[in-house]
Structure formats: structure tokens, C-alpha cells
Amino acid sequence: MSMRDEATYVCGACGERIVIPIDLSAGSHQTYTEDCPVCCRANVIHVDLGDRGDPHAWAELEYDA
User: Fold this and answer.
1) pLDDT at residue number 51
2) What is the pLDDT of residues 28-57, one digit of tens each?
3) pLDDT at 61 over 70
4) pLDDT for the residue numbered 19
5) Predicted TM-score (pTM) of this structure
6) If we measure between CA atoms, which residue out of 26, 1, 21 comes closest to residue 9?
7) N or C: which terminus of the chain carries fewer CB neighbours within 10 A?
């Protein structure tokens, strides 16, 4: 994997920095839910690919209504 194929986010619950693979074929704006591998809390992951394909990821906790 190259730097373009992965990004990091910080878990909103435990503060751990998590490395995630990026599916470059899934579009320039991606949103999906993933459990933190450290604390198991659900995070909504957002990924934006820049003009040169560089990924930027961030997360927010998924809350049950």
C-alpha cells in the first residue's frame, strides 16, 4: 500500500489514532461506519480525496437515537 491507499482518523471515544485502507475506486467523498479496533465504539468515517487523490479522513462517534 502507498500513502494514497491509507489514511488515519482519531476515535472519538478513546482518542486512538487508527489507520484505515482507502478504496480509491469508491469515489471522492466516502462515508461509512466502522467499529474502533481498540475500544469497539462505532465511528462514522468520512473520507475526501483531494484533487491529486490524497485522502483526508476524519471520524465522529455514531450515536443511537
Assistant:
1) 84
2) 999 999 999 999 999 999 999 988 888 999
3) yes
4) 96
5) 0.84
6) 21
7) C
Contact residues for 60 (Cβ-Cβ < 8 A; gap 6+) = 12, 43, 44, 46
Nearest CA to 24 among 58, 60, 52?
52
C-alpha cell at 50: 483531494
- Taking a C-beta distance cutoff of 8 angstroms, is the pair 22, 7 a contact? yes
Q: Rg of the chain's alpha carbons, rounded to an integer?
A: 12
Grid cell at residue 32: 461509512
Cα separation of 20 and 64, whole Å? Answer: 24
Asked if 11 contacts 36 with a C-beta cutoff of 8 angstroms, the reply is yes
CA separation, residue 34 to residues 9, 50, 53 (Å): 11, 22, 22
- Helix, strand, or coil here: 51? coil
N-terminal to C-terminal alpha carbon distance within the chain: 37
